[in-house]
Amino acid sequence: SHLLFPGCELTASTKSYTFQVDEKDDSDHILALSVVCLTDGAKDECNVVEVVGRNHENQEIAVPVANLKLSCQPLLSLDNFKLQPPVTFRLAAGSGPVHLAGWHRIVHREDASFEEDDVLSEEDEEEEKELTPIMPAKK
Questions:
Q1: Ordered per-residue pLDDT tens for the chain, 139 residues
Q2: Domain 2-108 in this protein, CATH class
Q3: Closest to 99 measured CA to CA, from 21, 41, 54
Q4: Domain boundaries defined on the chain
Q5: Which parts pass through the membrane (predicted)?
């Protein structure tokens, strides 16, 4: 199920926001970032937004995802940049305000265990019947 991620706002006084899910939750969560934009009151300065997460060795890594400036690039579409919670958004430079928005998807484990490949539709069965078997090569 897709849920709207109402987003967050990063400012000089609130430089970071962490999106996390309940550790007891057995579902898989995907957070997708759609838009990062400067909002009312932003100065004409570089505002760098970083995503802070953990790599495969559980070390913290920070990756810049947006560099916004009111006069040249006040908005950036991230085309549903997918992240695995927990994830922190941090205003690494500038004073904002920068607004982030996207969506949050929850995949329940019992849903994930269902394999579409295990079930053939009638069309798939018809297609399989129409295929000619491969003949062995003549020696």
A1: 556 666 899 999 999 999 887 777 667 888 889 999 999 999 999 999 999 988 889 888 999 999 999 999 999 999 998 888 888 999 999 999 999 998 888 877 664 444 444 444 455 555 445 555 555 666 6
A2: mainly beta
A3: 41
A4: 2-108
A5: none
To the question of pTM greater than 0.85 for the whole model, the response is no
DSSP string of 31-82?
EEEEEEEE-TT--SS-EEEEEEEE-TTS-EEEEEEEEEBTTTBSEEEEEEEE
Q: Which helix (H) or strand (E) holds 93?
A: strand 87-93
Query: Which residue, among 75, 77, 71, 81, has the nearest Cα to 98 in the 3D structure?
Result: 75
Residue pair 87/32 in contact (Cβ under 8 Å)? The answer is no
For residue 118, the 8-state DSSP code is: G
d(CA 118, CA 100): 39
